[in-house]
Design goal:
Elements (H helix, E strand, L loop, with lengths): L10 E4 L6 H31 L6 H29 L4 E3 H34 L4 H4 L2 H27 L8 E2 L6 H7 L5 H34 L4 H29 L8 H25 L2 H16 L2
Parallel strand pairs: 1-3
Antiparallel strand pairs: 1-2
Length: 312
């Protein structure tokens, strides 16, 4: 059979959960609700960070970046999936697949790095509180946020190019609900061990280096907190980091499971449900975590709502 790469195809068929038609309606309703909540929650965080002067701090600058990332990430995947769930046509164009893979990988990689940057921000806030405003000045914050976006999309460009250079011999049925690297590797009609090694290295760089930075930051944070003599001070210090640590655990736990396990242990059905979690559930939960655990955000929300109420 003549080998053809992805560029010879007009599009791909996203099989998703088409082998379980009874599940598709349930998924459509649940995902639509989750998607609406993700849009509302992340938009609220961005709006509050912009409207309330008390939230014009490095922490909320990075948090609004995270919310914008989650907003874009879930929007790059979920609307297409919802359309496929309710229609008979499960296809996506070749160009659409390239764009979806590039954007979703870029945003996911950016979030990996950004969470590491946010850990550094918490480290400075707890361990160097007197120098916090000096160290975390606006120019440095903008530089670190920009670097997160650059690294995320540079990694995405490499992985997207590697993925679409694979010969797939005319195969166009992706056993997934969106264009993702592990699903493409299964389409390849050549030995993919080399490309998997290269992508594994990129995955280690984009995932484990920020994780190492986060672990180092939190080791220093815990040591600093334990030196605080008052219980109230310890509780307050832990409170400033608890939301971020919860988000880190959710995001990195699913990402490491999905991308850094051996391919022979990768169950496609398992991978789909894990992907559902990090593409829709996590972006919806993140605003709730920061809202429910953060007095500043709740206070800003009350002020904005009360102001709107008084203006009527």
């Amino acid at each position: 059979m003549e080998q053809k790469n992805g560029s010879s195809l007009t599009g791909f068929v996203l099989l998703a959960f088409s082998d379980r038609p009874q599940l598709e309606l349930v998924l459509f309703v649940v995902l639509l609700i989750f998607y609406i909540f993700a849009l509302l929650g992340n938009t609220t965080i961005i709006a509050l960070s912009h409207l309330d002067p008390h939230l014009h701090t490095p922490m909320y600058f990075f948090l609004s970046n995270l919310s914008f990332l989650d907003l874009c990430y879930t929007t790059s995947i979920v609307p297409q999936f919802l359309v496929n769930l309710r229609g008979t046509d499960k296809s996506i164009s070749f160009a659409g697949c390239v764009v979806q893979l590039f954007i979703s990988l870029g945003l996911g990689g950016t979030e990996c790095v950004l969470l590491g940057v946010m850990a550094f921000d918490r480290y400075v806030a707890v361990c160097r509180p007197l120098y916090y405003t000096v160290i975390m000045h606006p120019r440095l914050c903008a530089l670190m946020a920009s670097a997160s976006w650059f690294i995320g999309f540079a990694n995405s460009l490499l992985q997207t190019v590697f993925t679409f250079l694979l010969p797939i011999c005319g195969r166009n049925k992706l056993d997934h609900f969106f264009c993702e690297v592990p699903a493409f590797l299964k389409l390849a009609c050549i030995d993919t061990s080399m490309i998997q090694s290269e992508m594994f290295f990129l995955g280690v760089f984009i995932l484990l280096i920020p994780v190492t930075s986060i672990m180092f930051s939190y080791c220093q944070i815990v040591r600093a907190i334990l030196r605080i003599k008052s219980a109230a001070g310890q509780t307050k210090a832990f409170g400033t980091c608890g939301s971020h640590l919860t988000v880190v655990t959710l995001f990195y736990g699913t990402a490491i499971y999905a991308y850094l396990q051996p391919s022979n242990n990768y169950s496609q059905d398992q991978g789909k449900f894990i992907a559902l979690f990090y593409t829709i559930v996590t972006p919806m939960i993140n605003p709730l975590i920061y809202t429910l655990r953060n007095k500043d955000v709740k206070g800003a929300m009350r002020k904005v709502l009360w102001k709107d109420y008084d203006s009527r």
